[in-house]
Amino acid sequence: MTSIFDDFYDADDLVSHLTQSIQYSIQAGGKRIRPLFLLETLQAFGVSITTEHLKVAGAVELIHTSSLIHDDLPAMDNDDFRRGKPTNHKVFGEAQAILAGDALLLDPYLLLANADLPSGVVVALVRELALASGSHGMVAGQVLDMDGETQTLTFEQLKQIHALKTGKMLTFPFVAAGLIAQQSDEVILSLRNLGEKVGQAFQIRDDILDVTATFDQIGKTPGKDEAADKSTYIKLLDLAGAKAELSANLVAAENILAELSRTTQLVPDSILKQIERLKID
Amino acid sequence: MTSIFDDFYDADDLVSHLTQSIQYSIQAGGKRIRPLFLLETLQAFGVSITTEHLKVAGAVELIHTSSLIHDDLPAMDNDDFRRGKPTNHKVFGEAQAILAGDALLLDPYLLLANADLPSGVVVALVRELALASGSHGMVAGQVLDMDGETQTLTFEQLKQIHALKTGKMLTFPFVAAGLIAQQSDEVILSLRNLGEKVGQAFQIRDDILDVTATFDQIGKTPGKDEAADKSTYIKLLDLAGAKAELSANLVAAENILAELSRTTQLVPDSILKQIERLKID
Questions:
Q1: ipTM of the modeled complex
Q2: If you average pLDDT over residues A167-181, what whole number do you get?
């Protein structure tokens, strides 16, 4: 994964002051969960991973990284730390952080266009990524999340916000793998449902960790949701209820995988292992 | 052009608070010079304009609009007015303006992917737009521009900044028209050269208007470059020199068009009329 980003951003003809701030946030690491899901789903379909697939996996990670940089800005969540390191604007200044985030929304489409895959597949990937990230997805969810900060949300409203804010970008890897593996519309739909369950599990887990984990465990200041009086799954369902909801989503995801392994050539073991990691006792 | 944006952003399933702020900046208007160049170049090649072409033209305008919203932010140029209206963040707040700008970098790729053109052409358009806008283009130019604010630049450095910051996005329409009209690599190269000349003319003209025009004529506060002690073509070449440089670029553009009209079926009249409008006595 890292080599894809290095190949892309170490090019001599790029502006080093920009690529330095971009690389700072890319290399801050994180779990690379979106690329991992994409590559493991591809492998589950029996596809051998090539550099072309890494470009697609890299594209979704870059957009995710942009959202973290912009979310941390003073005008947004005003966070000083991310993944245990000072946030991008703390190191490079606000203007540079805005621009690094902007580049990280645009460059992924160059990665997709440069992926040596059938043109029809690339166009479908571009469509899916744009739907997942722009005003049909992540950014819309961020707006709803911001608007919701001052209100008490219902469970359905909270689910809707997260479905857009984080769900669609977590669904993309599964759908993208299906598109690359040239699966039927029906299989793609199952992969979309799988991604939605995983995405929801992911956000519930995040809310749980915000109240149960330490700075070292999650690499950012815990307890921020409660301090900001944000609507969370914990606030709406309490801790036990949130854990039950997390568990229900993971079981649903496992069931979809079981069904896919019956109806297609998919071997679900590595994806199941990833899902296993999302569990909290 | 407006109908494309309305069709795209009036959809019921979108978040109205986001689309409202997006539409505010889109509808602020401006000259729509990038879409115009694209559509006129297509027509010059004898292509009848369809909705699919309007989607491509719309895509470049949306990215341009995003750059204006983000440029105006307090952390960037801190502008209160744009095109004679309060800037986006003045009306909707900084966080919303950042997110509106983000959506306007991502949504254009959905427009491209949804354009019913041959897949190979769409992939080439995605590549060109990403190269023109991200860390190979506009955003890189914005970083160089910002870095250069505190220095005295050479003519070559200033040209390089503008080639990235505004040049590539002004070149895209000409190249995109060539790709859609399925012209040869050689013709595409001529169109790229044409776009570069037009782009340079455009920026020199902007610098000239900053010292010679009124608020009503340009819809923004004039004299800002001088007040900020920015390197401009005026500062490096003086007013007469900048006018001569503008004129030289426009003549070069006209010569490329004349050559293209000799070697291809291109009828350059409408493009020449646009170029005519860039002239300053």
A1: 0.95
A2: 98
Band (A220; pLDDT cuts 50, 70, 90):
low
Q: Do A113 and B123 touch (CB under 8 A)?
A: yes
Find residue B94's DSSP bridge partners.
none
Q: A102 and B103 in contact by Cβ < 8 A?
A: no
Give the model confidence (pLDDT) of B135-166 as tens digits.
Answer: 999 999 999 999 888 788 999 999 999 999 99
Among B179, B146, B176, B180, residue whose Cα is nearest residue B161: B146
Give the ranges where chain B is alpha helix by DSSP (H).
2-9, 16-27, 33-44, 51-71, 88-92, 94-113, 119-133, 138-148, 155-162, 168-180, 185-212, 215-218, 224-227, 233-263, 269-277
Q: What is the rounded CA–CA span in Å between residue A131 and residue A58?
A: 17
B-interface mutation test, from A7, A110, A131, A138, most B Cβ less than 10 A away: A110
Model pLDDT for residues A25-48, shown as the tens digit of each residue: 999 878 899 999 999 999 999 999
Closest-CA residue in chain B for A121? B119
Non-local (6+) Cβ contacts of B57 within 8 A are B1, B4, B34, B35, B38, B39, B173
Q: What pLDDT was estimated at residue B31?
A: 85
**A interface mutation test: which of B106, B149, B157, B172 has the most A CBs within 10 A?**
B106
**Residues in B touching A99 (Cβ below 8 Å):** 70, 139, 142-143, 146
Asked whether the beta carbons of residue A122 and residue B127 sit closer than 8 angstroms, the reply is no
Residues A100-118 pLDDT 10s? 999 999 999 999 999 999 9
Could you give the CA distance from residue A125 to residue A131 in angstroms, rounded to a whole number? 10
Residues of B in contact with A110 (CB under 8 A): 126-127, 130-131, 134, 136
Global confidence as pTM: 0.95
Distance from the B267 Cα atom to the nearest Cα atom in chain A, whole angstroms: 31
User: CB B269: neighbour CB atoms within 10 A?
Assistant: 12
Amino acid at A133: S
The predicted pLDDT at position A149 comes to 82
The pLDDT tens digits of the residues spanning B25-73 come to: 999 878 899 999 999 999 999 999 999 999 999 999 999 999 999 999 9
Residue A112 near residue A55, CB atoms below 8 Å: yes
B65, HSE (Cβ side, Cα atoms, 13 Å): 32
Buried b (16+ CB within 10 A) or exposed e, A247-263: eebbebbbebbeebbee
